[in-house]
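New to this. Please check this record:
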Amino acid sequence: MQDLVNKTVLITGGSKGIGFGIAEALLAEGMRVAITSRSQKAADEAVSKLEKLGKGEIIGIEADVRSLASQENAVSKVIDRFGKLDVVIANAGIGHFASIEDLTEEQWQETIDTNLSGVFFSIKAGLKSLKDSKGYFITISSLAGTNFFANGSAYNASKFGVTGFSQAVMLDLRKHGIKVSTIMPGSVATYFNDHQPSDADAWKIQIEDLGQMVVDLLNMNPRTLPSKIEVRPTMPPSA
């Protein structure tokens, strides 16, 4: 997939953060981009910003990754607008961090439903289209998908699941000519978990860095597949 002009990508959770950075990078390559958000207003606001930055086409879709029907509707809208789907990027995610003593059933369920089931629903909804295009499925996991930490039981469980799910799906789908990769970032300067990015985040991975990484993956020779990529800040602050 080395000529990205007019290729079509669906990015879940693309209204801000990592998804927004990936959308910006792919628009700059001339791709046709669809971003989803649970809020149509947030999707529309992101589209307005992105339209000024890229040379590709972009649409915003209200969708909830926790629902297969919602994801199928999003894919249908992409096909109706662009006629095909070449890349699905399962990026949408949330974080609830608490000791198992304090973690609620609702927090657990929302984390698993969004971060893990949402990835499953994204590939199930887009699978036929990706088979047709011999496309690419990229998941955004985390270093928390191999490294556990206190107060991270729900988040760790979801991201360990995404990492394992992605690798198994890679083995399932490569016979169809579909490539599957998972990107596992460490600290990223985003709005995740109500954080407000600032100059103090300059040491962190930036969203444009992950956008460039996705471009590099899509431009890689089809014979080669980086299936699992761990990404860390080069120089984190000293403890």
Notes: Helices lie at 17-28, 40-51, 68-82, 105-133, 153-173, 207-219. The radius of gyration is 17 Å.
